[in-house]
């Protein structure tokens, strides 16, 4: 059996301790040169002191001017950068927000949401051209993960109130850079970019959004903003599960047998294309009406989970090297029996009790319970000859760089179920809530009608 990878216990601290890769790393610079080559707007360094706005804020410095380090080395006072700093400039923007947790009626269009300001030198302001919805938006609207996310928003309890409202939902963004922090040297105003904003930050269902430059990448050249907005969150979630946690990549995936459970959703459609682009044999599980789509995306075998007992259908096939589970529930009880024993085969699930435990038990007890659960399951299955893993969304500009290369080369294409104008965000949430979508629900933010 291949030497086991250590169980991803650090993922349990993801929301509180994760730091994205540095934009200043050699790998990031390599991708920046490739992605920026030939662009009219380029990606050259922005001179300091060219922004507008006044005031001061707490910023993170690394001791190297104009460069962004992996982890903060010290705190420095930096000017608060705002692209509309003139007293006469408009100070509000339209944004879909919630003021409490609940169902669709809590969504409210506010035209008085404050324009975002750059508080840290590694941030950029992006004008949102398009956004998209993900199942996590439905969950966050109802209060899912509020305990963990509020801890991440204010870990030192500095704020005088724990109220996170008004809260803007939406994770995906495709748009144009409007302003850059002082240490951002790989983007400048006018660059077309895409990103997935972490769930503890204000979301993208608004006219402007602030993001860390580490979370941003140049938009694929071949996609419109509407198409590009459908990919970042699901793409990074699948990338995290398959590459970061599962260990698959372009050099070791060829010929492996991969099973995707829940293949017709946003993460599933991306995952099918990704492992197929890396040369895997792909078995996709979905309903019959999505089988044509799965074949178009490259699946070698398509199993209809409604046509009979799914476990029995899959047992008739050769064993698998890797399983990605987007469904959870009872599938975990039998899915690991479909893996090749003592060969390094891995099962990765995206359905975990991490945030639920923290909501139910509190931060300390919730993390303890989560650690016990993942630890016991990892050891249990390791003794049976297979690897058991959890995976989570990880915001990462460098990973988006690699995804953009795959998109521009034609190996991955966006799968969009429906596009809604900005004024119909509540309808888009209802559409997503119906379930069984074939791809993503996208919001055209520029079209506000």
From TrEMBL:
It comes from the Eukaryota. It is found in: Mitochondrion matrix; Mitochondrion outer membrane. GO terms for biological process: nervous system development; ubiquinone biosynthetic process. Its main location: mitochondrion. GO terms for cellular component: mitochondrial matrix; mitochondrial outer membrane. Residues 42-63 are annotated as: Disordered. Residues 1-24 form the signal peptide. Residues 102-443 form the Enoyl reductase (ER) domain. This is NAD(P)H oxidoreductase RTN4IP1, mitochondrial. It comes from Anas platyrhynchos platyrhynchos.
């Amino acid at each position: 059996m291949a030497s086991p990878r250590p169980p991803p216990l650090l993922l349990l601290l993801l929301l509180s301790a994760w730091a994205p890769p540095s934009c200043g790393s050699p790998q990031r610079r390599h991708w920046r040169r490739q992605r920026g080559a030939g662009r009219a707007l380029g990606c050259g360094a922005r001179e300091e002191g060219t922004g507008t706005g006044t005031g001061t804020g707490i910023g993170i410095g690394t001791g190297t001017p104009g460069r962004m380090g992996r982890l903060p080395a010290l705190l420095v006072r930096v000017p608060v950068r705002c692209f509309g700093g003139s007293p006469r400039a408009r100070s509000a923007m339209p944004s879909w927000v919630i003021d409490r947790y609940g169902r669709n009626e809590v969504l409210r269009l506010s035209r008085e949401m404050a324009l975002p300001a750059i508080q840290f030198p590694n941030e950029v302001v992006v004008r949102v051209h398009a956004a998209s919805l993900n199942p996590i938006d439905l969950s966050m609207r109802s209060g899912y993960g509020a305990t963990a996310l509020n801890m991440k928003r204010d870990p030192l309890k500095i704020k005088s109130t724990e109220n996170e409202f008004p809260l803007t939902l939406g994770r995906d963004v495709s748009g144009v850079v409007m302003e850059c922090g002082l240490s951002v040297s790989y983007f400048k105003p006018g660059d077309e970019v895409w990103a997935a904003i972490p769930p503890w930050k204000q979301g993208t269902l608004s006219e402007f959004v602030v993001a860390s430059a580490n979370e941003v990448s140049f938009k694929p050249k071949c996609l419109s903003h509407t198409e590009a907005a459908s990919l970042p969150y699901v793409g990074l979630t699948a990338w995290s599960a398959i590459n970061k946690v599962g260990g698959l990549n372009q050099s070791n995936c060829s010929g492996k047998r991969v099973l995707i459970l829940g293949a017709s959703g946003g993460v599933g459609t991306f995952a099918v294309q990704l492992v197929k682009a890396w040369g895997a044999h792909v078995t996709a599980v979905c309903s019959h009406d999505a089988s044509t789509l799965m074949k178009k995306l490259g699946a070698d075998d398509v199993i209809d989970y409604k046509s009979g007992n799914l476990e029995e259908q899959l047992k008739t096939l050769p064993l698998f090297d890797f399983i990605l589970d987007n469904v959870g529930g009872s599938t975990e009880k039998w899915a690991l029996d479909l893996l090749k024993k003592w060969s390094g085969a891995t099962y990765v699930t995206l359905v975990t009790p991490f945030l639920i435990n923290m909501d139910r038990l509190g931060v300390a007890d919730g993390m303890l319970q989560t650690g016990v659960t993942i630890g016991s399951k990892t050891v249990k299955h390791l003794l049976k000859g297979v690897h058991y893993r959890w995976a989570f969304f990880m915001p990462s500009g460098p990973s988006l760089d690699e995804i953009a290369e795959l998109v521009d080369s034609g190996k991955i294409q966006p799968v969009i179920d429906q596009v809604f104008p900005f004024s119909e965000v509540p309808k888009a949430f209802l559409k997503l809530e119906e379930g069984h979508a074939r791809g993503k629900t996208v919001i055209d933010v520029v079209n506000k009608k």
